[in-house]
Amino acid sequence: MGNKRRLERLQRRLQQIVGHDFVFSCPEDTIPYSFDATYAEGRPEIVVLPGTAAEVAAVLAAAYEEEVPLTPRGAGTGLSGGALAVGGVLLVLTRMHRILELNKQSLYAVVEPGVVTAELQRAAARKRLFYPPDPSSAEVCTIGGNIAENAGGAHGFKYGVTRDYLLGLEFALPSGELITTGGYTVKNVTGYDLSRLLCGSEGTLGVITKAVLRLIPAPEARRTILAVFAAFEAAAEAVSRIIDAGVVPAAFEIMDRAAVRCVERYLRLGLPANTAAFIVAETDGYEDTAARLAREVAALCRKAGAQEVRVAQTSAEAEAFWRARRSVSAALARLKPFKVGEDIAVPLGRMPELVNRLQAIREQENIDMVVFGHAADGNLHPNIIANPRDGEEMKRVRRAMVRIFDAALELGGTLSGEHGIGTLKAPYLHRALSPAAADLMQRIKAVFDPKGLLNPGKIWADRDET
Amino acid sequence: MGNKRRLERLQRRLQQIVGHDFVFSCPEDTIPYSFDATYAEGRPEIVVLPGTAAEVAAVLAAAYEEEVPLTPRGAGTGLSGGALAVGGVLLVLTRMHRILELNKQSLYAVVEPGVVTAELQRAAARKRLFYPPDPSSAEVCTIGGNIAENAGGAHGFKYGVTRDYLLGLEFALPSGELITTGGYTVKNVTGYDLSRLLCGSEGTLGVITKAVLRLIPAPEARRTILAVFAAFEAAAEAVSRIIDAGVVPAAFEIMDRAAVRCVERYLRLGLPANTAAFIVAETDGYEDTAARLAREVAALCRKAGAQEVRVAQTSAEAEAFWRARRSVSAALARLKPFKVGEDIAVPLGRMPELVNRLQAIREQENIDMVVFGHAADGNLHPNIIANPRDGEEMKRVRRAMVRIFDAALELGGTLSGEHGIGTLKAPYLHRALSPAAADLMQRIKAVFDPKGLLNPGKIWADRDET
Fold this sequence. Notes:
globular, Uridine Diphospho-n-acetylenolpyruvylglucosamine Reductase, domain 2, 15 helices, 4 domains, five-stranded antiparallel beta sheet, homodimer
């Protein structure tokens, strides 16, 4: 049977499952679903928006039967191409956006995959609870995508990442079978940990239809600290001093000169123009504890050579510091049409070396690179912008990317800290995984998805021998 | 070829791999390796103690080729039978007990699987670092076993369990291939999370040969609080009040009347004889923070009806409180020859119901049951002791066990919080896992171990239809 007829038949089946209103196939309807937060695109042939777990399962079963590839998608804020369709069906989970339970006595939330991260954070805060994972796109991105990518954010050093707040899952296999795993308790060793196997699997093993997330009591107080440095290395040095002193900030974010300039142009916050690096740190806990931690972080930043250190006096001021940090990525995208956001992580002690190597790469390859990220996680986001019509520049960009990956790996780090491999890093995965480990993972993939139809081309792809 | 000849040939191969001194097959040598911390036993035909990862891999490959089942084992402190041989080879990892690296700047340790948990804790403490997972057997048990069982302990509520400190692994597949997974950073989404799939897999997927563990800065101060209650329910009520107040103790351990009596007889600590329940709690952080938290925990215990609350004034006093808690299991084993230690966990808010149901089961089945555990994790260890020659009593014990499992599951909890399924709970696993989930897990098992020779009979076994 021809591909076209098969797709038409599948479309009719999907319409029967979710209703005509939630199945699209005209270009004007599918084009808006062809992008994520990368420069890449991928047009689905059918977009389907199920409203329940049973509908998700039925959609999967139908696509599997018709042997049509399917890509699951949340809000499309991904930075590695994981939610871009490769033709076939795009299964969008944004209609499933209910917080089903928020249990203060037992410290968990049960949510549908389309719940926006910041909405869960706010719902928790209203009950004096805290959901710490905090990707910069929290106001838009969804929990299902956060779990699929094991999203991190600014609170990783003290509070960990999405994986650390995952208690249980309901997910659908490509065949359409619904699986429940984990539960409602932190301690749970009943069978293999499928929840965490799904976490970070980038939608290649199953489609998350429900999640049980751990919440913790909200800290009583927070302090936000801004520190300005004349040299990026000095800011990296501040991280080492903080670790060495045993001080645990809730966040410790770093931005280089280019990032500061870029945000300043966009937000006009009045930051010093000659800043080479700045740090936005947060401390939390009891009122006294947060204050003492803030004093210690400030003192350690000064010892590391900070020119200026400010502790926010009002919540508006704190918000301004954070807005600067959160706006980098968006501000950057305005400068040049092509932007690639890397996401390497290295052991904390190797941060100074990483910073030096990034600087060398920037100079030697003569590229437009901005560096910012989660300094206390060893997780930096070197972002490169370029003009895609400038073939020479693009060649240098590609060379720089490979050198950045190699730098991270040579320093004992990883290709991706929190964005995932997706399509963009798939060709480079062989640099980070041994053939034996990759083979084992792909055999696990085949257990979940014997036909290889769930989110194909993500994580696993042909290698780039650059 | 006969089984006996096959074993002899394998034994010669193993002698070539690890040397004659580290392969045993005489009963006087294998009997000491036939027990763990349960009432069960399992005699291996060959005991082998490799000294390196390469030797582990070669031992596995040889056993796999000869199609002889193999069980990996650390210190044998397991409470679910996971490290008991079912004939075949017992691979003991205690010779691999080196801490290979303890990196303060990057906050991780690299260890061999045979490192004793408390030794890692002490090595970390010497550098003002903290490795929080803390099973009661920490002075004896080993990291490899902790990872295989996803061990927890007293610090779960604030600090999580072994899984939360696992950054990377090297492990050997049954075929003898060495796999490296994860790395040295908290943020790492490069490929599927095999580290956490291995964690809690009870030695059924691979044999851990090296682990990278996350360390955190050690808290500046600790406080230990003892609270004595006239009713167990009141002690459970204290947990609810603490959660409700948003207070986060580092530990909050509970023991019932029987546990208190039993320890008292054994340790003679001078605890009030009419105690129905007592709590050992710990707070930590900065000096001020630990003290404020201790005051709050004490006040909340009093509000919940504590008769007496003491904050330890010296480290010797704190140690005495903890010794009482840690000695329960050993003290119990002296009373009757048969002891089974359960390990259920329920959502925190369901603790009062669980406590009531356990009390009803104890009375209705007329069994000798002691309850203690990690109250702030919803993780209780109902321990039943009995005389195995009393057939009637043993029948009641078995009935009570099943009722305990059902109570945990009906309250949204789990069969095992931190001890694992092993052999003891394997017949009951079908009560907790759907057939679809169990089938998926077993297909994953088959990817790692196509011949089904690695730690057979553990987790996966025939069901008990009681």
